Amino acid sequence: MPLVNVKDLLFDAAKNNYAVGAFNCNNMEILQAIIRAAEEEDAPVIIQASQGAIKYAGLDYIASMGKLAAEKSSVPAALHLDHGTSIEQVIQCIRHGFSSVMFDGSSLPFDDNAALTKEVVEIAHAVDVSVEGELGRICGTEDDISVCDRDASLTDPGEAKSFVEFTGVDSLAVSIGTAHGRYKGTPDLDFERLERIGELVDIPLVMHGASGVPSEDICRAIPMGIRKINIDTDIREAFVTGIMEALEEDPHGRDPRNILGHAREKMQEIVGEKMRLFGCAHRIR
């Protein structure tokens, strides 16, 4: 089926109290693992491309693969730009057929972030593309974006309300203590902050840096308004594990199909597990 709008996916998630998994994709095997898991779990899915993925694979390749995967899929799939940091990049992705974009102005002063996000919303909504904004900074490193601990700031609930009302974004990524990359310790999420944001903001909220967050914390956050959950590091680690296992089993193997095929299976397992955890499995009617 054709690519769907993330706004539509998250509307159903909010209505039925679950979250949709958003999985970062860098190559064909990762994309296949994501789609196969979604079909096996009967789950809606969001395919994400970060700036790093676009730089690595090329926008033409990423967009073409994402659209083809969605067209051949039996479940609703969206193609989403993750952490876009310029209006020019957002426009390029829209022109290449992305059904959703994120504008990340979280490093900017509040007024500048809000003004640029509003401009992105006006551009994207004119062609039925949904927009995710971000307020507050999530620590860690993801591709070309790095935030050190001392610069990381949690989302202010009052600012979140003003930001959403001014910009008209369809979803909002909030900083409540998660981190990009692998956690050094146990995540300490600010659930009181999340609950307050959920009370003040009437759009779906997004959790970035969810790889490594304990399952019980995920389950606690969803009823508080988290409707989109991003996973990247867990997929990368499954990919590497699969390759290492394949080479250990056959140290002299030279067929990339066998090596990457095993990695794909490992990633599919992880994606399926996350879909069941998020509650989006078996949602296709």
Primary descriptors:
single chain, 285 residues, alpha/beta, TIM Barrel, 8-stranded parallel β-barrel, 3-stranded mixed β-sheet, 11 strands, 49% helix, 18% strand
Major beta sheet summary: 8 strands, parallel, barrel
Count the strands?
11
CATH class: Alpha Beta
In spatial order, strands of the major sheet run 1-2-3-4-5-8-10-11
Tell me the fraction of residues in β-strands, as a range: 15-25%
Q: What is the CATH-assigned architecture?
A: Alpha-Beta Barrel
The low-confidence runs, each spanning 5 or more residues with pLDDT under 50, are none
Helices and strands, in order, run as HEHEHHEHEHEEEHEEHEHEHH
CATH homology superfamily: Aldolase class I
Domain unit count: 1
Briefly characterize the structure:
The chain is α/β, with parallel strands linked by helices. It has helices at 6-16, 28-41, 51-57, 59-72, 87-95, 110-125, 157-167, 191-200, 215-221, 233-249, 256-278; strands at 20-24, 45-50, 77-84, 100-103, 130-135, 139-142, 145-147, 171-174, 179-180, 205-207, 226-231. The strands form two sheets. Strands 1-2-3-4-5-8-10-11 form an eight-stranded parallel beta barrel, surrounded by nine helices. A three-stranded mixed beta sheet has the order 7-6-9, with no helix packed on it.
